[in-house]
Amino acid sequence: MDPATDSILIFDSFVFDPARGVVRVDGVELDLRPKSFAVLACLVGNAGRLVSKQDLHAAVWGNVAVSDDSLVQCIRELRLKLRDGEHRIIKTVSRRGYRLDAEPVLPSHDHEPSNVPRPASTSRSLAARPAALPRWWLAGGLSVIAFATLATAPLIADGMRHPLAELVNWLAPGDHGIVPDQDVERIASLAVEKQLPLPAFRIRAPADDVPDNVRRFLGVWASDEGWINSHRQFMMIVTSVDREGVATGYLVNGPAMPHSRTPGPGFSGGFTGQVSDGILRYDGNAGVHSASITGDGRIEFKLVFREGGTGVVFLEPLWTLARPGRVAHNQT
């Protein structure tokens, strides 16, 4: 095995990579604070065994005196990011400590998830390599080509499907959960039009006990005019919500515009946030994201940058439980 990957461990559906200081799921790196990552590293290193609060404090904070609340906050963040609302992965042992209820394994040729890159085989022909890649890799690569092509491609007549949207939709997994196929096609077409790198997504039906002020965020939301002042296009896809207010999904940005704060091509990434008092909040690398639903059924999305300043964008519901089949104003 490549020495660079010897320390990579797999637990549940997650890939723990201490050398790079990241945890991945479905190829997406989870955004964890350093202390939370250190707590997880200690639990992974002692998987299946109880780790006392004292040992966790010593391993993560050393001789620095901190309250028990610091550890509790780290555990809460880990459960949020690992989508462990039912405490299936991280178990609490009352008054004693915590236990990672999973058995990490080293990645190998026979046991390795698709989000851990494998070395290319020199004996495999170039023609055979694309067939071995996950379909979402192919979709992502071809989407980039598609968006570049669109910059010079003529407009397609109203009512016709864009062939590149058809290609991306075919490559993406066919199961989009509770979103009907015709709505998925409209969302894919609009994403191509706005040069948004649409990720493969699946929206799960919420449980009956999920509060209405939480479930109303579930769905696909996209900007009409883009971020205020920059006009960079943006999309939010909320794929699941639970009774505790945990919401997961994807944030998708189009390519930078002349006044965009962050340069570069379009990109997307997974998020796990919390709905509280009618506001979905997510603490990401760039800053604090918040989404609130306005009186007219749109979302006002704000990003408070860590270095100062606030970005605002309004999102239209493309598909939600409350308004299934709805599309943005400019997509008729």
UniProtKB/TrEMBL annotation:
Domain OmpR/PhoB-type per the UniProt entry, residue ranges: 6-102
PROSITE patterns: OMPR_PHOB
Organism, scientific name: Bradyrhizobium macuxiense
Keyword terms of this UniProt record: DNA-binding
Residue stretches of biased makeup (Basic and acidic residues): 104-113
Residue ranges, annotated region (Disordered): 104-124
Keyword set includes Transmembrane: no
A family per Pfam: Trans_reg_C
GO BP annotations, alphabetical order: phosphorelay signal transduction system; regulation of DNA-templated transcription
Residue ranges of DNA binding: 6-102
InterPro entries noted in UniProt: OmpR/PhoB-type_DNA-bd, Sig_transdc_resp-reg_C-effctor, WH-like_DNA-bd_sf
Name this polypeptide is given: DNA-binding winged helix-turn-helix (WHTH) protein
Lineage: Bacteria, Pseudomonadati, Pseudomonadota, Alphaproteobacteria, Hyphomicrobiales
GO MF annotation list: DNA binding
